[in-house]
Design a protein that fits this description.
Elements lengths: L1 H49 L20 H73 L3 H49 L10 E5 L4 H7 L4 H10 L2 E3 L6 E5 L3 H17 L4 H30 L9 H5 L5 E2 L2 E2 H19 L3 H9 L15 H11 L4 H8 L10 H14 L7 H18 L4 E7 L4 E6 L6 H18 L7 E6 L9
Parallel strand pairs: 7-8
Antiparallel strand pairs: 1-3, 2-3, 4-5, 6-7
């Protein structure tokens, strides 16, 4: 690198000197041309003055008496001074020309000297490269490693030392922190639990619909049970009509489906017209109403959490959690409680309470889609939050709150703590209900995996699976095969008391419009 820099400097100096010489030559040539023209013009009157006279010499004119002869003397003086000035100019030009010739000679000598230096530098650079290659080859021969292998080994050694130092430093910090961490953590958790007083709600799988009278039960059942069969097939819930006066029970493990059926039956009872076509119409309207209720519940929860910038696409998914339970605990209320607890913990630890509140509030949002997407609710929720532009720390807290991914941030650890505190409160959850719901969900999933299946409903508290197939894709013989395959898989994969009845329904409809 030094040789190249010196060579560049030498070439630059040579270029500047050459440019200066060219400028001086141009100036001198122009000066000589102008000087040659003026001396000739000045010599002409001198030659005329000194030219010998031919013929008789005439007497000089005499001036009038009383006047002096001054004009010829002044002219001669002027010519003499001009001649002297021209001579001095010629001498000056000759001197400049000599000096310029000497400078050009010196410049040529310097250029030759710089060329010699450049050649020497090139030879020296080649020798240095050769010596460096020989030295590298010698070191590789002695060490038994190539240059790249030696570099990799050195980097590995440095990395190992750095990791060892970091591990020792981490161990010292952990040892120092453990001295006071346990007491401090207990104080923070106790303070947060004391400040939160959320309502604990245990959901059931049965909803009661009041009736104006017992005669309405006959309308619900219909002629030969037509209405009640259509209602159960359309809504996917069990209608329990027992001796309870003026009420009907709706049984279903899916809270959203049960709520939709409750609204449907309530409207049918109020209207009084109950038949299969009317049931389908009211059920569709009830589904839209449930979607509106979900959005309203999500907006109320966001207002309570103080969140104003949640993506609109998450509102229906978040609101659907008000009809879902986790071990008997309402999921939406669980999320609100976790948000408050995480914010309190973050305030005690000097962290950002808003970020921790948002992460804890959204950590179980994947439970609204676990029956529609593959994977755990933590993975599903993290993917959902990532698609809707949530902060990477919030996405990480969602996917790490069950240790499926190792927590890397304090916010993720606080989300786990808030989830554990909310779920461990007395009476918050019931293990048996959750296992029951999972068993019913698995029954439906097994049936949905067969080709041609349109809808699947787990009925009679899991003792019956009702499967609706597409008549264009499945014939009567295939329906029997599907029923046997579902029953066989249920026997192999699930544990349950008693028997489970598998019913495959293949229904064809012909519709014509009279105009």
């Amino acid at each position: 690198m030094d040789t190249t820099v010196m060579l560049g400097i030498a070439v630059g100096v040579l270029a500047l000197v050459t440019l200066a010489v060219v400028v001086l030559l141009v100036v001198l040539v122009r000066g000589q041309q102008s000087g040659k023209g003026r001396p000739q013009a000045r010599r002409a009157p001198q030659q005329q003055a000194t030219r010998p006279e031919r013929g008789p010499r005439r007497p000089a004119p005499t001036a009038p008496p009383g006047t002096a002869q001054v004009a010829p003397t002044a002219q001669e003086e002027e010519l003499r001074s001009r001649r002297q000035a021209a001579d001095r100019r010629e001498e000056l030009l000759a001197e400049r020309e000599d000096r310029l010739n000497r400078y050009l000679t010196e410049l040529h000598n310097r250029e030759a000297h710089l060329d010699t230096i450049a050649e020497g530098l090139d030879r020296r650079e080649a020798l240095l490269d050769e010596a460096e290659a020989q030295q590298t080859q010698a070191l590789s021969t002695v060490a038994g490693l190539s240059a790249e292998e030696a570099r990799v080994e050195l980097m590995a050694h440095v990395e190992k030392d750095a990791r060892l130092h970091a591990a020792q430093l981490t161990r010292e910090i952990e040892s120092e922190a453990k001295l006071n961490a346990e007491a401090k953590a207990r104080a923070i958790i106790v303070t947060s639990i004391q400040r939160i007083a959320a309502e604990q709600t245990t959901e059931s799988v049965v909803a009661a619909v009041p009736l104006p009278g017992d005669e309405m039960k006959g309308r619900i059942i219909g002629r030969e049970g037509r209405n009640i069969r259509a209602f159960e097939q359309i809504t996917g819930v069990n209608v329990l009509i027992d001796d309870t006066p003026e009420s009907v029970l709706l049984s279903c493990f899916d809270p959203v489906r049960r709520e939709t059926a409750r609204l449907t039956l309530t409207e049918l009872v109020a209207d009084g017209r109950i038949h299969p076509a009317r049931i389908e119409e009211v059920h569709e309207r009830s589904q839209r109403r449930v979607e509106e209720l979900c959005i309203r519940a999500a907006e109320d929860a966001l207002i309570e959490m103080g969140i104003t910038d949640l993506a609109p696409g998450l509102l229906p998914i978040l609101g659907a959690l008000q009809y879902r339970t986790s071990y008997g605990q309402n999921v939406l209320k669980h999320l609100i409680e976790c948000g408050h607890i995480a914010a309190m913990l973050a305030s005690e630890l000097g962290l950002d309470p808003e970020l921790c509140r948002r992460a804890a509030f959204l950590h179980d949002i994947g439970k609204a889609l676990t029956h529609e997407a593959e994977g755990s609710h933590a993975k599903v929720g993290a993917d959902l939050a990532r698609r809707h532009g949530e902060h990477p720390d919030i996405v990480h807290a969602i996917e790490a709150h069950h240790n499926e991914v190792e927590p890397r941030t304090v916010e993720a650890v606080l989300t786990q703590a808030a989830d554990a505190i909310s779920g461990s409160r007395p009476g918050a959850r019931r293990e048996s209900l959750e296992m029951y719901v999972k068993r019913l969900q698995r029954l439906e999933d097994i049936a949905k995996e067969h080709e041609g299946v349109d809808k699947v409903f787990a009925m009679q508290a899991g003792r019956e699976i009702r499967v609706m197939v597409v008549p264009e894709l499945v014939n009567d013989a295939q329906s029997a095969v599907i029923a046997r395959e579902i029953a066989k898989r249920v026997e192999e994969e699930l544990t349950y008391p008693g028997n489970i009845k598998v019913t495959v329904v293949r229904e064809s409809r012909a519709i014509a419009l009279a105009k």
